[in-house]
Amino acid sequence: MGCLVIERWGVKRWAWRVDQFTANPYLVLHLGVVDNCQILLLLHFLPMSSLLKAQTANAKGKGKRPANDEGEAGPPRKRNKQRVLLLSSRGITHRMRHLMGDLEALLPHIKKARLQKPLHLLPELADLHNCNNTLYFEARRHEDLYLWAAKTPNGPSREHWKLIKELFTHIFGVPPTARRAKPFIDHILTFSIVDNKIWFRNFQIIEKDPLKPNGPPETSLVEIGPRFVLTPIRIFEGAFGGATVFSNPEFVSPAAIRSQFKREQGEKYRARKEGEAERNTRREERRREEDELAVRNVFA
């Protein structure tokens, strides 16, 4: 008694398979041609004993391999399991919200959440959302935007160029199994270091010139945004806290810059008022005393 087995192979391997199974009855069915490739179905009969032996061998191969087995082991496949949690503090403006929306559109493996807990509880929140990276936008005084990029739950949080490169690779690298990932590559993200700052730019890959649709393919890059600049401030040993590993001595907060500007404006105002007071004093000193025998006083 035999068992019917249906297998499908490409055209190049079909001849080898036919030679292998010449001892058994077989039937070749031609289904058609797609993209200059023939589609064939090879139907052949195998004895039930052979089929059971093959299934037993496959079942044995699925188990754990013993430690003394020196068989060839394939290279371990590296899987990208990075997931990013995106959230912000209260008081963000519309421009900050648009930047967050652009990053959410660029990263299909991102998850959004609302922050209603203190900063040191962010690692726990990321763990609840099954995320191992966190991007936290902190708005201060409705004008300044600070970005916290952290590996949760053990850190680190930012800085040193090699560390930043590895951190951004984990955050912006899209896993191939992300639910919103596309099966093609149409844009490039660049991170450039200029003046000790990180410049982020997004470019679209254009295969052909739209003005020459029938011309030869010419690959080019067109910037489509968003674009922003990151100034490294500090690196912490843990996630969103811990000992300070690095601090940027050249960083001056925008609040300090605005305070200095207002102080300079106040100095100008004070100097102007002091000049007016000195001018009024000189006028009073130059004024003559009024004569009691003046015509205006005699005939008043």
TrEMBL record:
<feature type="region of interest" description="Disordered">
    <location>
        <begin position="57"/>
        <end position="80"/>
    </location>
</feature>
<feature type="domain" description="Brix">
    <location>
        <begin position="82"/>
        <end position="241"/>
    </location>
</feature>
<dbReference type="InterPro" id="IPR007109">
    <property type="entry name" value="Brix"/>
</dbReference>
<feature type="region of interest" description="Disordered">
    <location>
        <begin position="263"/>
        <end position="290"/>
    </location>
</feature>
<dbReference type="GO" id="GO:0006364">
    <property type="term" value="P:rRNA processing"/>
</dbReference>
<dbReference type="GO" id="GO:0000027">
    <property type="term" value="P:ribosomal large subunit assembly"/>
</dbReference>
<dbReference type="GO" id="GO:0019843">
    <property type="term" value="F:rRNA binding"/>
</dbReference>
<protein>
    <submittedName>
        <fullName>Brix</fullName>
    </submittedName>
</protein>
<dbReference type="GO" id="GO:0005730">
    <property type="term" value="C:nucleolus"/>
</dbReference>
<dbReference type="InterPro" id="IPR026532">
    <property type="entry name" value="BRX1"/>
</dbReference>
<comment type="similarity">
    <text>Belongs to the BRX1 family.</text>
</comment>
<keyword id="KW-0539">Nucleus</keyword>
<dbReference type="Pfam" id="PF04427">
    <property type="entry name" value="Brix"/>
</dbReference>
<keyword id="KW-0690">Ribosome biogenesis</keyword>
